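Q: What would this complex look like in 3D?
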Amino acid sequence: MPRQILVTAALPYANGHIHLGHLVEYIQTDIWVRFQKLRGNRCIYLCADDTHGTAIMIRARQEGRSEEVLIADMQAAHERDFAAFDIAFDNYGSTNSPENRQLCGEIWQSIRAAGLVRAADVSQLYDPVAGTFLADRFVKGTCPKCGAADQYGDSCDKCGSTYSPADLINPTSTLSGTSPEVRSAAHLFIELEKLHAFLDTWTQSGNHLQPEIANYLKGHFLGEPLRDWDVSRPAPYFGFEIPDSPGNYWYVWFDAPIGYMASLRQWCDKTGEKFESWWPREGTINESAQPPTSNLQPPTSPEVHHFIGKDITYFHTLFWPGMLKTAGYQLPEKVHIHGFLTVNGEKMSKSKGTFVRAATYLNHLDPSFLRYYYASKLTPRVDDLDMNLEEFVAKGNADLVGKVVNLASRCAGFVKTTGLSARYPDDGGLFAHAAAEGEAIAAAYEECDYNRAMRLIMALADRANPFVEENAPWNLKKDPAQAARLQEVCTVALNLFRQLAVYLAPVLPRLAQQAGELFDRPITKWTDASEPLVDVPVRPFQHMLKRVTPEEVQKMIEESREEAAATTPAGLPLAPPVPSDTAQQDSAAALAAEPLTSECSIDDFAKVDLRVARILSAEDVPEARKLLKLTVSLGGDVKRTVFAGIKAAYQPEQLVGRLVIIVANLAPRQMKFGLSEGMVCASGPGGAEVYLLSPDNGAVPGQRVH
RNA sequence: GGGCCCGUAGCUCAGCGGUUAGAGCAGGGGACUCAUAAUCCCUUGGUCGGGGGUUCGAUCCCCUCCGGGCCUACCA
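A: Here is my prediction, written as structure tokens for the whole assembly.
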């Protein structure tokens, strides 16, 4: 009986673009979902953008647009990136959706009704200019203990002491630069301790969590009373207002996991499926805390599986089960937790160019290679995953191109006119052996041990190529009397190839598609690997995967470094990440250094004619302290001379050829060294810290910036 | 400061209380020419981080030290 499985990946935060770190999770999950579907289980993959919170509100303000516009743009970009990596969601929603608002309300009511909510005043620093309460990290001042200047609101880097931001001497808001005041506001708390017994049982029983996670929770959180969870934020806050507490909003981490359910509701509305049959309202402590089934009986109820990164463990293993339990919803069958991505053994680094956005990767490399590489490195454990770039190139080329695709590539040509033999020939047990390995491979996929699955599959490929070698079809071809034998040998080799394509289908859907097309027999189910294909035509072989080169990888790294250099002020510390899966939180220092100016109308903005321009030449102005003389093209014969104060930041030769944005209708200005006919757009405080703006690939000189 | 994880061949990793510790890649030698300079065969290479202990026997269990990573910080 097919299982019914609902799978989620963590909701990416709308504050940043998808990068290679995010993709570990979405690819890991996508592989698992594709595997389940291939096995004949009913499985859906749900996700959504996580859109609420202070960070979004601040960013929208910084960018001078509404939160809704910001999150819509980001969601479109996220979905584009996911699709390009063959990450196939059954539904992709948003936490800022009516479905989510309604579900939050329902669950909130249940928690209220269960008597788990209490109110308490929280004193926080408030920025009267920005009109918002300030999280600790948005306040800087002098340490009250040791007097060190410029310390964040929660602790001192110098002496290590911790304190409340209100204790800081001369506190300053990093948003507006003004001095914040202490204000008190009522917050709502969920008394998680009342669920302690349930959480003890749920986390430690069954197979809901990896052993190291269950152990971690036991030792770190469950060994003492659980603290109340502050789930409200006072206005202004971008999120949902709490219906029975006007002026207060649900904290982003309250509504984010409910977003899984909201996405399910959208999917149900789209497909006519019933919400209750995928996420039933049931599950008392006794039922849910026990292992769901014995070995004899397959589960009959739908399963909910969450895939998350280790940074958001406690939201998904304590708060979320607590919420579900209280609201009477079925609990997750399993929360699968993975580690972080490192590149060449180190944390991803913007300055080293190893902080690679999904879109940047796609400019240079094939998504299939990343899917395979991650698969070959993923285990069921919480360990970090290292992406060694040399290994990435070697492994993809050797395994996928050299071993797997090569089987088809070297044999398909011999049988393009005859097709495969009418009966499957004696192959010394090769096919049967690989078919028998299917269950071991499936077991590895099932438990997320993709590393083992890939090793098992490649071991099969390692048996297939020697078969071709021993039977040397290229020699058989020379003798017309051996035509039947030639066809047999190729029938074996091509079937072995197809078997590998089936086993790799969860990882490499495109390869499975191509393998299906080669014989005009689509690969649709796992058992396609257990029956050989016979008596079918073989279509002309077409390249299935292009080898990657170290140069392409290098270009990707270069581009990432340039992107980072254009966005990250050197020398300023990055604020720590917000508690969302691999999301980025930028420092507030830049905005504080130069607060926003007064608002302008769209008509005001339209007066400024920004254009894409290409730098044709750049030369030093020796007598000038800061200036370079640039000649830029606006396309055709239209050229401008611009003096730009970027000498300390750029070498003239590195500028030639690149695209920049210029203010094209700025009144010409006579300078000591000549007439400047425009202005090149750049950010940064000045000196060596000047960062030219670049358009994305595809922009051409002369285009106006709107 | 507390906690967790890791340290096995040049690299990435498997393994496991018990014959002589494995794989892929890289390196060396040879073969082949069908294939995306792919493939096949042979081969070099490890005091399983150091030191103690338990055991008939330890890479595996325990202690400790060293090194690396991550999390969290008047709490875990």
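A: To summarize the key features: Chain A has a mean pLDDT of 84. Residues 203 and 525 of chain A are 34 Å apart (CA to CA).
Q: Very helpful, thank you.
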